[in-house]
Design a protein that fits this description.
By secondary structure, the chain is an alpha/beta fold. Helix 6 packs antiparallel against helix 7 and helix 7 packs antiparallel against helix 8. The strands form two sheets. A seven-stranded mixed sheet has the order 1-2-3-4-5-6-7, with no helix packed on it. It has a six-stranded mixed sheet with strand order 8-9-10-11-12-13, with no helix packed on it. The protein has a domain of 213 residues: 4-Layer Sandwich (Metallo-beta-lactamase, Chain A), CATH 3.60.15.10. The protein is globular and about 60 Å long. It is 38% helix and 20% strand. It starts with a helix and ends with a helix.
């Protein structure tokens, strides 16, 4: 009898441990507005230690379906995001919406394939993924290592946005809008009209220094129009959920400073290396990861502005 009790006790402990481990596999999320859940990525470079979980990702639950907004920087993160969804609703995931094509936002896509889920993105995104995907996969296999990159593949969108479309999750309408080249050439925003919550992707950075991979003139041109979107809060691509449109102030200042400094250097005939070393240096103390990205931002801006 004592032996049976001991075995039962062990089984109870094992079951509790298994449940605890299963629970731990859920990506931590917060409900930032009714039915809208967000995981805030680390303000860090993508590594094997963090499984690439450096971008904000989230999901929106309607009366009949769910939409996922970005899938994270690895299939591991995508699977953990999926577990967080399943823990909160049994409604089907009807859409996976990409805000753009950078690895920290799309590498988790394979976790959501099947069961009729439709992948949605900017009209330029399939071409961008095809052109850059092989490079991204090869580079991050070296950077992050095989375990974190297991199962990662590029899953391009099949429903494309050119202008504005609406998606219905059941008594919940999402407005998706494609933007001209700014942070990238495939930026997309998602507005939930019900809660006035804007998923801005990497068109908005907070804390994390903005990263320029598209057009600095385009991004500066987009900011004012973006600020007219009728939202109350924004989920940026990186950084905390914040009040809208005040969340734009910091990056407007940074990008404006970067463009101004580069124009002065171009006018003086300085080489691109000087821009990499000095442009926007006054912003260093205001941003995390400044030294990881600013030089690249400056050279990208210089290559555009020198042809004005």
């Amino acid at each position: 009898m004592a032996h049976r009790v001991s075995v039962l006790a062990l089984l109870v402990v094992f079951a509790a441990s298994t449940l605890s481990q299963a629970k731990a596999q859920e990506l931590p999320v917060s409900e930032v507005a009714p039915g809208i859940f967000v995981h805030l990525g680390q303000t860090a470079l993508m590594t094997g230690e963090n499984d690439g979980a450096t971008a904000n990702v989230g999901f929106i639950i309607g009366d009949s379906a769910v939409a996922v907004i970005d899938t994270g920087g690895s299939v591991r993160e995508g699977q953990q995001l999926l577990a967080a969804i399943v823990a909160r609703t049994d409604k089907p995931i009807r859409y996976v919406i990409y805000t753009h094509g950078h690895p920290d936002h799309v590498f988790g896509g394979a976790a959501f394939t099947g069961d009729g889920t439709v992948f949605v993105g900017h009209r330029n995104l399939p071409q961008a993924m095809a052109a850059r995907g092989p490079f991204y996969l090869d580079a991050f296999r070296r950077i992050m290592g095989a375990p974190s990159m297991e199962g990662v593949r590029m899953i391009p969108p099949t429903r494309l946005v050119d202008g504005t479309i609406q998606l219905d999750l059941g008594s919940r309408i999402l407005t998706l809008r494609s933007w001209p080249a700014a942070h990238s050439d495939s930026d997309l925003t998602v507005l939930d009209a019900q809660t006035k919550t804007l998923f801005a992707g990497d068109l908005v950075f907070l804390t994390h220094v903005p990263v320029l991979d598209g057009s600095i003139r385009g991004w500066l041109g987009v900011i004012d129009e973006l600020g007219t979107v009728p939202a109350e809060r924004v989920v940026p691509g990186h950084g905390p959920v914040s009040e809208w449109p005040g969340a734009l102030d910091g990056q407007r200042r940074y990008l404006g400073t970067l463009a101004s400094d580069v124009r002065k250097l171009v006018a003086r005939g300085e080489p691109i290396t000087v821009a990499a070393d000095t442009a926007a240096a006054s912003e260093r103390s205001r941003w995390q990861l400044f030294d990881d990205y600013n030089a690249r931002n400056a050279t990208t801006a210089f290559s555009e502005i020198e042809w004005e």
